[in-house]
Amino acid sequence: MTAPMSHVAEAPDALSLVVVSLLKGVVYREENPSLWQSLLKLHARVSDHVSVLGLGLALDEPEGYAFLRQRAEGEGAGELPRLVARRPLGYGSSLLLALLRKRLADADAAAGGTRLVMRRHELQDLVRLFLPEGTNEVRWGERVNQDIERAVGLGFLKPLAEEDTFEVRRILKAFVTAHCLEGLEQRLAAYRAQLIEEQGGRE
């Protein structure tokens, strides 16, 4: 007889269930509370288990997420092949994620860590400031929508039941750190000024 999920922490295959779930992607407390409790109880064993694969466990208990990351060579990973693939991002996707991370930080400061939910048009407006004069708005809109879908695919945006509405996932904080945000406004302002200069000073 299969043990119910509520008792997964005591099941003999709990370690395997946790490790396989992590290998498949991010584990969120809110999406699977029983699996999350298993992870908290077994995190030391999970870390030991995945370390032989050259992976490390990234666990943020306050934020409620965990994932596996490739260990750097200096962390004892040696010359093992990568199991966690690098995913290079284009400028548009990188800009969107940086702006979302800043919006998340602003929301945390104002509301103390509540969910950040945004409509598609709000996501588009975030990057509209960097739209050079003379750009084809239809093509630009298509590119921004592609960047939004890319963020969804990477797990940084979660589509909600309401159409064109997304939750900004807090795991974004693990990939775009507070250190990365330092000086972001100055760099964005400088980039905006460069765009205006290239367009002959037109706003």
Cα gyration radius (Å): 20 Å
What is the count of structural domains? 2
Query: How large is the share of residues in beta strands?
Result: 5-15%
Helix content: 40-55%
Q: Topology as H/E string? A: HEHEEHEHHEEHHH
- What is the mean predicted local confidence, pLDDT? 80
CATH topology of the largest domain: Arc Repressor Mutant, subunit A
Q: Uncertain segments of ≥5 residues (pLDDT<50)?
A: 1-9
Could you say which structural class the secondary elements and strand pairing correspond to?
mainly alpha
- How many E strands? 6
Number of helices: 8
Strand order, largest beta sheet: 1-3-2
Largest sheet: 3 strands, antiparallel
CATH class of the largest domain: Mainly Alpha
Q: Which descriptor suits the 3D outline?
A: elongated
CATH structural architecture of the largest domain: Orthogonal Bundle
Short summary:
This protein has 203 residues and is mainly alpha-helical. Helix content is 49%, strand content 12%. The chain has helices at 14-24, 33-51, 91-111, 120-128, 137-153, 172-175, 178-181, 184-198, and strands at residues 27-28, 55-60, 65-70, 117-119, 157-159, 165-168.
Fold topology:
Elements lengths: L13 H11 L2 E2 L4 H19 L3 E6 L4 E6 L20 H21 L5 E3 H9 L8 H17 L3 E3 L5 E4 L3 H4 L2 H4 L2 H15 L5
Describe the model.
By secondary structure, the chain is mainly α. About 50% of the residues lie in helices and about 10% in strands. It contains 8 helices and 6 strands. The chain has a 3-stranded antiparallel beta sheet with strand order 1-3-2. Helix 3 (about 90-110) packs across helix 5 and helix 4 (about 120-130) crosses helix 5 (about 135-155). The model is unreliable at about 1-10 (pLDDT under 50).
